[in-house]
Amino acid sequence: MASHDEPYVVSATPTAYSTSSPPSPISNKRFAASTADVSEKVKGADSPSEGAAEGVNVKAAEKEFAELRRELSRQSSLHRIASRRSLDVEKQDEDEFDLLEFDFHMTDMRGADKANSEAGIRHKTAGVIFNELSVIGNGGMKIHIRTFPDAIKEFLLTPLIVLGPYLGLFKPEPKTILSRFNGVVKPGEMVLVLGRPNSGCSTFLKAIANQREGYLAVEGDVSYAGIEATEFKKRFAGEACYNQEEDVHHPTLTVGQTIDFALSTKTPGKRLPQQSPKQFRAVVLDTLLKMLNISHTKNTMVGNEFVRGVSGGERKRVSIAEMFAGRACVASWDNSTRGLDASTALDYAKSLRILTDVFQMTNFVSLYQAGEGIYQQFDKVLVIDEGREIFFGPASEARSYFLGLGFRDLSRQTTADYLTGCTDPNERQFADGRDESNVPSSPEALEAAFRASPYFSKMEKERAEYAKQLESEKNIQEEFRLAVRESKRRGVSKKSPYTVSFFAQVMALVRRQFQLKMQDKFSIFTSYFTSITIALIVGSVYLNLPESASGAFTRGGVIFIALLFNGLNAFSELPSQMMGRPILYKQIGFQFYRPSALSLAAIVADIPFSALQIMLFSIIIYFMAGLSRSAGAFFTFYIIIYLTFLAMTAFFRMIGTVCVSYDVAARLASFLVTGMVLYAGYMIPVFAMKRWLFWISYLNPLNYGFSALMTNEFMRLNLLCDPMYQVPSLLPQYPTTLGPNQVCTLRGAQPGNPYVSGTDYVETAFQYSPGDRWRNFGIIIAFFVGFQTLQMILVEIVAHGAHASSITVYKPEDKDTQVRNQRLQERKEAFRKGTAQQNLDGLIKTRKPFTWSNLCYTVPVPGGQKQLLDNVFGYVKPGTLTALMGASGAGKTTLLDVLADRKTMGVITGEIRIAGRPIGMDFQAGAAYCEQQDVHEWTTTVREALRFSAYLRQPKEVSKEEKDDYVEEIIQLLEMEDIADAMIGFPGYGLGVEARKRLTIGVELAAKPQLLLFLDEPTSGLDGQSAYNIVRFLKKLAAAGQAILCTIHQPNALLFEQFDRLLLLERGGKTVYFGDVGKDSHVLVNYLAKHGAHCPPDANPAEYMLDAIGAGTKKRVGPKPWSEVYLKSEEFAENKRVIEELNAQALKDFPEEKAATSRYNTSFLFQLKVVGKRTFLSFWRMPDYGFTRLFSHMIIALFTSLTFLMLGDSVAELQYRVFVIFIATVMPALILAQVEPTYIMARSTFVREDSSRMYSPFVFSLAQLVSEMPNSLLCATAFFLLLTYPAGFNTSSDRAGYQFFIILITEVYSVTLGQLVAALSPSIFIAALFNPFLLVIFSLFCGVTIPKPNMIYFWRVWMYQLDPFTRLISGMVSTELHGLEVRCKPEEFAVFQPPSGQTCGDWAQPYVDSMGGYLRDPNATSDCGFCQYNLGDQFYTPLGISFDDRWRDLGILIAFTAFNIICTLIASRFLRYANR
After folding, report:
1. Residue 831 belongs to what H/E stretch?
2. Residue 1326 burial by CB count (10 A; 0-12/13-18/19+): exposed, middle or buried?
3. Which one, of 1439, 1192, 1202, 1211, lies nearest residue 1310 by Cα?
4. Is the Cβ–Cβ distance between 180 and 131 less than 8 Å?
5. What are the φ/ψ torsions at residue 990 (nearest 5 degrees)?
6. Using CA atoms, how far apart are residues 805 and 1237, in angstroms rounded to an integer?
7. Quick check: 535 and 563 in contact, CB under 8 A?
8. Which one of 536, 925, 1031, 1122 is least enclosed by Cβ atoms within 10 Å?
9. CA nearest 1016: which of 1111, 938, 900?
10. Contacts of residue 1368, Cβ cutoff 8 Å, sequence gap at least 6
């Protein structure tokens, strides 16, 4: 301990209500005293076995700090010796480096000279005072499930919805979430926040961390180091942080990179002399990793549920390290041990304790299922009941306080669970002679009791004294202010809450974004592969374009495709940008960087990758197509393509910033992209655009890019007028080269000149001037800068979903559900009062034992086989509850999968028997398996999900009414009366964790499993009371005769003893123990003691047994592996004997039954009816899905038809009609992007349901297809009406009817194609990779962008014929143009002079008769005008299209659709992508 000359010493275990003065500047002596006794504070860390632990070890952590201190002191000493030799020897004494002074910014050494000694060391700490803190949120309104009509109404009312809050409309009804909280927490203290789900714990943690966004009001006073919350938020926002429950990180970054990035944005300005920021980060990073025992993961990816990375416990420690790298003084941690096993959770608490003591932080932590060892780490505890503070005081005295109120002491319950249980009306028990009348029971009564207690008075006294001290000792607050100010780097405003400058933030983010790109090699490969492949395909189609009139239009086509592909490729940024929002909001909350810094860094980091990708694309397509072969032309082509890509990237990112969701962004993009494509100048030149719409082209970066590329190409060309473009020609009487009596029909041609200047061509055909090329280049740069600047401004303002609160939505009641819900509430009240009891009699009809012997399981791995289960024996008797436990990686879930017959790969040996016989086809239907992941159809309600399971899994002989009634029983049993009509949804929008877990169990129980119930981690992620409720319910089921095998995570002693038997595994799938648990776990404890492992009386046997066998972070007890001990034990011999006896007896008791002939309990048609109904309902309840698709169809059709409004009969308008028809090929692009994710997400639910033999894969696929049809019909109808009628298409019934029919078939074809691609793909990301290939190929080879005669032979003979769009274009073009009279406008006539003495008819009529078209005046003797077409048929006949083949084309398109359906059905049967 500290020497007695020290004026003030804080004990390592300070009492919560100490009246001694708190520290001012903290000395080295105090640090020595504090760290010397840290282990006294961290309970249970001094045992010899723990000294060798691999987990968080307090002594090892202290050693790391000591070594770091010595190293830094040495560095400082060497620096002083080198730089201060001229100083007096007496002033060169070497001070130790003080880690408290280090405080993650390593201030300069004290005592080096007189000035430093006098200035002292500034260390930032902030105690928290809260007085009458209340939080008001939204409430009072029951939200109903959104459906398709709601999306339409919301769209129409968008202006009102957006402006409503500003106009005083739609005022939410206020709801008090937290009411009048009071307390004080000093630096170096940890507070445990306890409460049931929805009691307000998360709200308190956010409010105390000064995160007040998302609430209507936060009332009361909160101060940090004496600074009011408002000023603290503005000036010191990064000093109070909230760490959310989920571990949100970039999965492809390594652990080291994740923490290093946090440090790079928080590297302070004041460091050791001559220590660079890089050296600082390296030292701190190494220290953090060692202290948290994750040094071995430094170069391992963080990972997530989709990317393989570190374990859940290690990922949690990464979150701790990242939070501490932020150097916040006040930290809130929300349920930070979710999903961790008991050992890892304790390690987490110890890590937090060490860092709190070392850095004198102020920590608030909420935990679920906190064991006693964890609870003992905390100084204070706050207990919340329905938003009211019912206790705040010393953690060591909380239990006695509630006992004093009159609650019964449940000695086997952990303190944390006991305190939470006192707030649960269903769980709490009163002391003998006490009841609700004389014990405060309601939240209001408990709050009043606390306010009247001595603890509240002590807290108020402590708070007043601390506030007075802060007021009187201004140096404490001033130290904090100066420490924060001096930690800022050069260039940062004193008032800024950030540590580093904007430029430094951008540089750090650029490095991180570059790392993200480099480490996501699959994305790099696929993007480059897609780009290069598309370039090769397009280049081969436009191979070596001739420098002649016949190559002019196609040259423009290849330029437009090159520009459009790269420009629209930027749209792929949207999903990743929106998925990155949670990480952005978390790190903004930590004040790592400004949001605009990320916007700028993202574009900078992309440049090396995108520049090379587009360079490769440009080289391939440019030189294969034979564009102008000069260096200047090529590099101009490249830089314009690339700048347009950058402008479009900034544009799409701006849309992603503004839009609340991807659906909204897709709607907006469909509108804007259509406008950009139509008004780029290729489909319709600017001068031909409608005068009231042409202004769109001036706002379109693609227009300037296309103009610059066209002039760049054609200014260097002289195009030869080949015979096809000479009028008259191609007959023997006409010259083969252009003569004085012929004209070239290419725009810009001069009479008698066989060459057409490329400049004249683009000036005449497009009104483009080569002189505008660099002006357009500058405009594109301006667009890029403008979009980027707008995005940077908007991202600072808009924060969609950053502060959203969780909501539950409900299905409106009908008469049936109203009656049923009323009955449920009546029975619930009767159960609560004890006037009724749940009756499970008759639940299980047959009681068959389940056994397994010599069970082994091996899987293939690189280099051989790996054994996951090693000769496991066991059994489950009907009416017993068996726990399956073991270390992480011991094979618990693997064993469950094998026993439940769910494995699809690997080799299983041994015997699995039910009633003494091998399991058969009907086993899965008779057994229920509650998987760890709660996978459900998210659009259904709780009651609907239970009924769905009952309808399909109970025998078909049971009537619908009986099944419905049984579902009500399940709702009652699982205590889900209040959420029976709640939509399942997803986290944040639907049921909470506990309710979803109950539903998972309910879905399996609804099947009335007669054989077995398997459960995998049913209590994971639940609070202590919810976990106990789940296990208590399982105990009731077992008492009713159910055989249950259940893996369990982190059980306390009370929970653990609910189990009848235990199967304990160690790593490698070896059995350590299989036998009874016993009252107070005495059977298990005796077994361990018999073999040398003595469980302490106050220890939790469930935790101790794991430590004893070496399953946690400690070495095992004893010299031999416990699996070897078990194999030689009498318990093992007895178990084998019982297995043989059970099988023999079961063979006698249960005669052999007829083998099942079907995998399913119900017929195919019944499955189709039930599944189809649910799928229809699902689509109806996905309003954004349906409306986004409908809106996209409508806006594209309307935009196109308004652009080409009421087309006339000129030659140009003939071409425009074809372009309008070509727009129909856009539909598949929209549909594929929506159908694929929907199908794949539905498939994940089907895979779970199919493993229970609920319904056939054919039923799943057919239901998905049929449910898409109503929306397809609606979309096709809207598209047809808005496209064809305003554009002036033929409205006769035979023509319009055909057009509608082929559009409808194309819509259905697109849906079936999307479902086929999805069925063939393992993930949404892989499915999306197919889309560019399919869409480019379909659009390229259908004959519009390059006519069939112009295609090279290789593509023309097979790809053109196999392209489904060929049938669409052929059918629609022939139907629209057949018999259409064409009349040229004056400027469209090709004017030539006839030979002297001949009329126009004498000279050109043979040509007209042969080629078609007409002469303006056959009798004229000069200025002969020739119109290329007089009937629409003459346009499409040379292209190989025939009006007579249009029904054949429709039939072929239907055949393509049928092919997709058949392949999808086959793929759904054989491709599940769910190997287990």
Report:
1. helix 815-833
2. middle
3. 1192
4. no
5. 150, -150
6. 26
7. no
8. 536
9. 900
10. 1224, 1225, 1302, 1306, 1342, 1449, 1453
Mean pLDDT across the chain, nearest whole number?
Answer: 83
Intra-chain end-to-end CA distance of the chain, in Å: 56
Amino acid identity of 1205? L
Helix axes 255-264, 277-291, angle to 10 degrees: 130
Per residue in 1363-1398, pLDDT tens? 999 999 999 999 999 999 999 999 889 999 999 989
CA-wise closest residue to 330 among 455, 191, 439, 427: 191
Contact 1360, 1343 (CB under 8 A): yes
Q: How far apart are CA 215 and CA 535, in angstroms?
A: 52
Task: Name the percent of the chain in helix, strand, coil, to the closest 5.
Answer: 55, 10, 35
What sign results for the dihedral spanned by CA atoms 519, 523, 525, 531? Answer: negative
Q: With 0.90 as the threshold, say if the pTM is over it.
A: no
Is the distance from CB of 390 to CB of 407 less than 8 angstroms?
no
C-alpha–C-alpha distance, residues 1402 and 1097, integer Å: 119
**Phi, psi (5° rounding) for residue 868?**
-100, -25
Closest to 980 in 3D by CA, of 948, 939, 941: 941
What is the C-alpha to C-alpha distance for residues 1050 and 1056, in angstroms, rounded to an integer? Answer: 9
Contact predicate 1213/1207, CB 8 Å: yes
User: Contact at 8 Å (CB) between 354 and 61?
Assistant: yes
Ramachandran assignment for 1128, one of left (phi > 0), alpha (psi -120 to 50 degrees), beta (any other):
alpha
| C-alpha distance from residue 1224 to each of 1193, 1230, 1277, 1282 (Å) | 9, 11, 13, 12
Q: Which two tokens stand for residue 1066?
A: 């160690």
Query: Rounded distance, CA 452 to CA 27, Å?
Result: 39
Preceding omega of 728 cis (within 30 degrees of 0): yes
User: Average pLDDT, stretch 1050-1073?
Assistant: 85
Amino acid (one-letter) located at 891: G
d(CA 1402, CA 1419): 8
Q: How remote is the C-alpha of 558 from its chain's centroid?
A: 37
Longest CA pairwise span in the chain (Å): 130
For the stretch 748-797, pLDDT in tens is: 888 778 899 999 999 999 999 999 999 999 999 999 999 999 999 999 88
Length in residues, the chain: 1476
Is 1453 within 8 Å of 1364 (Cβ atoms)?
yes
| Contact call for residues 905 and 898 (beta carbons, < 8 A) | no
Residue 102 CB partners (closer than 8 Å, separation 6+): 69, 72
What CA–CA distances, in Å, run from 382 to 338, 355, 398?
19, 21, 9
Confidence of residue 115 (pLDDT cuts 50, 70, 90): very low
HSE toward the beta carbon, residue 681, CA cutoff 13 A: 28
Cα dist from 203 to 388, 398, 468, 998, whole Å: 12, 22, 28, 24
Tens of pLDDT along 1120-1156? 888 888 898 898 999 999 999 998 888 888 777 766 6
The pairing of beta strand 240-243 with beta strand 330-334: parallel
- Whether 377 and 349 have beta carbons less than 8 Å apart is answered as yes
Cα angle value 1008/1013/1015 (rounded, 5°)? 130
Closest by CA to 1024, choosing from 415, 446, 347, 350, is 415
Alpha-carbon Rg for the chain, nearest whole angstrom, is 38
- For residue 832, the one-letter residue type is R
Residue bearing tokens 């209001």: 444
**CA-CA-CA-CA torsion sign (1465, 1466, 1470, 1474):** negative
